[in-house]
Each structure stands twice: as structure tokens, then as C-alpha cells.
Amino acid sequence: MEVPKTIVCVDCGETAHLISYPPEEGWAIGDYVAYRCRGCNDRWDLVVSEEDQDSPAPTHPTIAEEARAILAARRENSSD
Ligand SMILES: [Zn+2]
């Protein structure tokens, strides 16, 4: 299966590019994929989920939603 070549960084809104090389057999559910943001240089390690395959209306977290969740958790942790 394919994963997005780029995602929008939820930290700064810049484009984050895929930096992981795909396995020979392609990405599988549960694989970790890493993205690097060209804006804030943050690295995003995300897990490939079923809904990343080709669902037009995902009901479970996608890579983008997962990234948002990571950001939210990070903000909570640094609030005090
Ligand atoms: Zn960024």
C-alpha cells in the first residue's frame, strides 16, 4: 500500500516530507513512517493504519489525525 509522500505539519502548517524508505513489498498496516517538516524541522513518526489505504471518509485516526493527537499531547505535557 501507499502512504502520503507529504503531510501538512500541524505545528507550523508547512509541508512535511516522507523520509522513510518503503519496504520492498510496500508499506503494511502497523509500519512506522517518518516525516520531516521543512518548516519547523520536526520529525513525525506515524503508524500506518487501515484507513490510510484509500478510504475517502475515515472513521478511525489517519496519519494526519494521529499527528494532531501527538501535537495535542505534547502541548498538554508542556503546559506547566
Ligand atoms: Zn512544522
Question: What can be said about this structure in brief?
Answer:
The protein is of the alpha+beta class and 80 residues long. Helices cover 19% and strands 22% of the residues. It starts with 5 loop residues before the first strand and ends with a helix.
What do these coordinates show?
This protein has one helix at 63-77; strands at 6-8, 15-18, 32-37, 43-47. The protein is an alpha+beta fold. It has one domain (6-77). A 4-stranded antiparallel β-sheet has the order 1-2-3-4, with helices on one face. The longest helix is centred in the last third of the chain and has 15 residues, at 63-77. The termini are far apart. Bound molecules: zinc ion.
Q: Helices and strands in order, then pairings?
A:
Elements: E1 6-8, E2 15-18, E3 32-37, E4 43-47, H1 63-77
Antiparallel strand pairs: 1-2, 2-3, 3-4
Bound molecules: zinc ion.
Zinc ion is lined by residues 9, 11-12, 14, 37, 39-40, 42.
Q: How many domains comprise the coordinates? A: 1
> What global shape is seen?
globular
* CA-CA gap between termini: 41 Å
Q: Please estimate the helix content.
A: 10-25%
The largest sheet has its strands arranged as: 1-2-3-4
Instruction: Please report the total strand number as a whole number.
Output: 4
